[in-house]
Specification:
With about 270 residues, the chain is mainly α. Helix content is about 40%, strand content about 0%. The chain has 15 helices and two strands.
């Protein structure tokens, strides 16, 4: 009887060992008891990088303040299985400004790990206006074809300053972007203004007839820059008296009230 019981116990032990081997082979882990079962380890940034290598690399290369002001665990406050929703809302940190009230942050800020790598659709204006108020005021107060365009028609990337010659034929073949901006402000392009020391060759690009007459003239006017007389504002026509005063007797001035009656035009003066 005892021998039979011993044989049954041996067989039962063999069955238990076989079952446990199958259990382990199936990849099922066995939870281990811990003396401090209630205390969980605190994750560090170094721990995150052990599994998530792409995000730390992106932040390191172009993270902006996401690199210097916050860490992984400041934004991702939890980890499965304790917390399944670990993607934070932008408004958790970004609030208090009109721009932060916009919906769909990821439409422009495609990757929160590179937040300043901003891409636009080609038909945006309203989101831009939450920050760039001065520009829209200039466009509205000084209507031009630029006023009719979406902001992202010209600014395809955030902070991009497009070259004027991408759309506009320059006044002269050798003109470059800096020449355009000497006279034109992009958000009020029809309000032409220029510094007093601007080269007359810039003016000649449009006003070639006047320029050619002037440089061919024997009068002292040829020694002056265009902007010396046409000060600061496009199409400003000065009075001869501003420089020359009243050089003739009253009787002559009454008979010939306009200087041009005798002297022709300022660019080609008749002596």
């Amino acid at each position: 009887m005892k021998m039979r019981m011993k044989c049954k116990n041996v067989q039962l032990m063999k069955h238990m060992v076989t079952a446990f081997a199958i259990f382990l082979t199936a990849g099922v882990s066995v939870p281990l008891a811990s003396a401090a079962d209630g205390a969980r380890p605190v994750l560090s940034v170094d721990d995150c990088a052990k599994c998530h290598d792409a995000a730390p690399k992106a932040i390191e290369s172009n993270g902006g303040k996401h690199k210097t002001s916050v860490t992984c665990v400041d934004c991702h406050q939890g980890h499965p299985p304790d917390k399944t929703d670990i993607i934070p809302q932008c408004g958790m940190c970004h609030s208090g400004e009109k721009h932060f009230q916009l919906e769909g942050c990821l439409n422009c800020h495609k990757n929160p790990h590179t937040p300043l790598a901003i891409t636009f659709a080609d038909n945006l204006t309203d989101p831009c206006l939450t920050c760039h108020t001065e520009q829209i005021e200039q466009l509205k107060q000084n209507p031009s074809k630029h006023t009719e365009l979406f902001c992202t028609f010209c600014h395809t990337k955030h902070g991009e300053i497009p070259d004027c010659t991408g759309c506009h034929t320059p006044h002269a073949p050798n003109m470059v972007q800096s020449d355009c901006l000497t006279c034109h402000k992009v958000h009020m392009p029809r309000q032409v203004a220029y510094p007093d020391d601007i080269s007359s060759k810039h003016c000649a690009a449009c006003h070639d007839t006047a320029y050619n007459l002037l440089i061919a003239s024997p009068a002292k006017h040829k020694e002056l820059a265009c902007a010396y007389c046409h000060k600061s504002q496009h199409k400003m026509v000065p009075k001869c008296q501003d420089c020359h005063g009243v050089p003739h007797p009253d009787g002559m001035m009454q008979k010939f009230a306009a200087c041009g009656d005798c002297h022709g035009i300022a660019h080609n003066i008749n002596k």
